[in-house]
Amino acid sequence: MTALLALESTLESNGLPYAIPIHPNLVHLTLGLFIVAIAFDIVAALYPLEKPIFKFLAIPVTSAGLYDVGWFNMVAAAIVTFFTVAAGFYEIILAQPPQDMISPWGLNATDTMVWHGVGGVLLLALIVGMTVWRGFQRYLWREDRARQVEWSYLLAGLFIFVLMFAQGTLGAHLGGDFGVHVTADRLIRAGLDPNDLSASTRLSKAVNAPPIEGSRDIGPEGS
Amino acid sequence: MFENLLPALNNHNLPYPDTIHPIVVHFVIAMVLFGVVCDAIGYFTKNTRLFEVGWWNMVFATISIFIAIIFGQVEAGLATPYAAAASDLNLHTLLGWSLSAILAAITGWRYIIRLKSPDSLPTTYLGFNFALTALVLFQVYLGDKLVWVYGLHTEAVVEAARGGLLQ
Lengths: 223, 167
Known about the structure:
The structure holds two protein chains of two kinds.
Chain A: H1 2-8, H2 23-45, H3 47-56, H4 63-93, H5 109-141, H6 151-177, H7 183-189, H8 197-208
Chain B: H1 21-24, H2 26-45, H3 49-77, H4 83-116, H5 123-149, H6 155-162
Helix pairs in contact in B: 2-3, 2-5, 3-4, 4-5
């Protein structure tokens, strides 16, 4: 508890001990790497159909090179996503979302965070599973085949895109609607002006101040 | 005159549910950073297979950055930036357009390298990769500020701006 208080005493006005959230930045890497990995495996699997296009563009292409992108990007996605999920949970723990509103999907902030957290763990498991599956296909099961991936693997990848879209929309609700860890939103909700340079300092002071227990000395009499 | 042809703006001041630019930039940020990492590992381990991975990631990043700019301009135009946010939005716009030219030039250079000597990378190219990485990271920092510090297109900021409370 003392350690937690010591940590909280350094929070910025976005409710985090640093000025910019880390999780949304790692999300760029998870999504970019995973989606491009599946996309290149699809392009590689359909390579016979695309030959004339690449020839027209004067780009020399080997399907082995395209499959390399599918494999190495997927491995990188799996590694990075552990950190994406870890940073996400850390920032969920420090979230102080408004309790008086619901998202476009009809969820309150706590439910949105729970679903986003569950979705994150599920997607991490799926990405790691896909990487293992991809590795077996590449090095054992289909090592000597022209097409390195099964169609079912590509279909599973497309299905995961749908889950990622839902997960991303929940994340967008947390940032864009509830304003979780958004400095300006927290200032506005505290009645302060984001244009006022001293507002951030005043809010972080208020956030870091020890809670006052006992009766209030402001507000209506007798309450 | 065209106002009636466009969908109504929602509570994020957008004609569609959520911002699209931050989604498209996944494919610029992740692909540039991973492409550079692949090039560097390939250069030091002499694993030429990774050069192919680096090249294709750069191609994907180059296509994506132009799409990112189109959505970026639309969403910047609808952002109602208030005084504190304006200069960072201007710099993000300027650097975004510049990065499209820089990234396209580096990928074009890479195309020629890949045709002429696919099994090696000039050290100068790695230097350009490094500079590109620094610019991309700074651009990400600016974009992060626009979303997470200034809250552009978030419900609270749009509401305050529409109420005339934030200028």
